[in-house]
Please model this.
Amino acid sequence: MAEKGKSKTNVMARADVKNRVQHCRFCGNKVEVVMALTPSGKKKIIRICCGG
Model:
């Protein structure tokens, strides 16, 4: 069994993934991630770059 009081998540690994920057596979520039609303009112995550 797991020890009591010990976290199961690797905090350093999660911080590393969060700080990693995504690059566009077409132009190589940084990809901007934004949340947009569709006309029906749903939230959608969009990745903006060169439009490739």
Remarks:
- The beta strands are 32-37, 43-48.
- Residues 11-19 form the longest helix (9 residues).
